[in-house]
Fold these 4 entries.
Entry 1:
Amino acid sequence: MSTVVLVAALVAAGLIAGLFYAYACSVMPGLARADDKTFVEGMRGINVAIVNPVFLATFLGAPLLAGVAVFLKPGPWVIAGFALLVAMVVITGVVNIPLNNALENGGDDYAALRARFETVWVRWNIVRAVVSTAGFACLVAAVVTRRS
């Protein structure tokens, strides 16, 4: 059972790391080319659309499943993966979500909203992409070392 949970955590972590990677290398660079109103309204639409059961199950499921895997069969790679995935959730909750909320509730001065949002959000998205990818890599190492 512990291997099934670990593999489920690994898959969820890979999906979420891939999502943040996709934002870093395509979504945000694409939106960066847009005018201020398009940028703000585009991000507002994305922020509403992403809060859905599939995303939430993956985003919260990766650290939750990794935590269960630590409980079932602790090891250094599983613990590290769990810690990194928890860090990803914390970064999102402390930085990205408040920025998203400020963007949503900031009115229609698109240039000012974008100026307060874009650079900080992009920087921290890259951080969480790296952190979630590292968490994924640790879970890969946990699976590989269990099989050896």
Entry 2:
Amino acid sequence: MSDLERSRKFYEGQLGLDGAATPGGWTVSGDYGTVINLLPEIPDAGSAGWPVATFRVDDVSATVRELRSRDVPFLGPDDIPFSLDGDGVSTDQAGLRVAWMRDPDGNILTIYSLSS
């Protein structure tokens, strides 16, 4: 079961997404059409072992640095099977720059930008 207030602090406060009440919980939204439903009554919150949401950003390295300054926890080289640069960003996927983080329930989230 998820703590809705803790999740809202993370998604709205730390990630900077916009939130609104929705039936059964809360919805947060961001750029490029990103929408996440926070449903506190789901008993297996945080149990997925893969990214449950992906956010596109303009510059993933700058976004990682900004989010780290807000205490967002990112996955490191021991957590994922990709090489990472000094910012914790992978360029192993053709055309993408990718980083992975965890929300308060342990869900893995991905942020990415297109390689130039």
Entry 3:
Amino acid sequence: MKKLFILLAGGIAAIVALSLTGPLLGFAFSALLVFAGMHYYVKSKSAISKIFFVVLGLIGVFSAISNIPALIGLGALVVLYVLYKKWNNQEVSFSDVKMKEEDPFTNFENEWAKLTK
């Protein structure tokens, strides 16, 4: 029953993601415009080029606003990722950053345990 639910939800999410590929591509292009506008605005020296890159960034922002359905497509892709992990019985984690413990006493105890073996 669990595998059937995962298969059904995955099929629905795949259909939604495929039907929203147009807005996803438009959203990616508008994000590229915003990034390029910000990047070149910081590097530009003259006022005219700064104005041009601000306008370019605003065009990208307005284009991203018009592609709001792409957020539903992004959500469907995330659901597909989670269901794929669940299908393979893997743990779902969105943060791979492991916090390293900075306590010097713990590190000392670990090193001392290695030395006394």
Entry 4:
Amino acid sequence: MLRSVEDNEFKIIYVKGYPSLAAFISSDRDKITAIYRRFDQLSARNLLYLQSDLVELEARQGKYDAEDRQRTTGEKASSRDWEILMNKASESNNTH
């Protein structure tokens, strides 16, 4: 960091390469130098993988909900009360 005697301000000197380029881009008030690659194919692939994971989780949740509908009223209390849910989850005979 250098100090300018005339302006009584500090000027940060960045290492050449990514640090100085990032400082230049972020200092642009009009944001016209902020040009980035979008990685469209990679983004699309990641979204497809994430969707696939969510579909599997959604199916698993549906299965759990169906099991919960078959439970007694007392057993269903864990779906409404966090403390009951945590107690049941910590029980040694819990199968889920």
